[in-house]
Amino acid sequence: MDGVTALTTFLLMVIVFGLLGLVLFWAFGIDRRAVPDYTGDDFGLLTEVSAVPTPEAADVLARRLRAARIKVTVVRRDGLHRLMVFPADAPDAKLLLRSVT
Asked: What is the pTM of this model?
């Protein structure tokens, strides 16, 4: 009688852990997200609209974009200050910055 109880307990534990493993695999095992960019060149949704050599020039251009209600981020990479905007704002930002030069 003790052998049947121990066997039943063991089989129940195997079933419970098996089901738990399947649920965890379903929830976390199939990760189809893109691999993160560790090089620092990927800015997600942002698009570069201009690159200038000095922080002062980047500040002037960023203020001009913000005055036109365009959200802008300035990123320093490889000695250049890059002005980044959302793709929907990129044409307007480029047009506005082209009128500055």
From this structure: 0.60
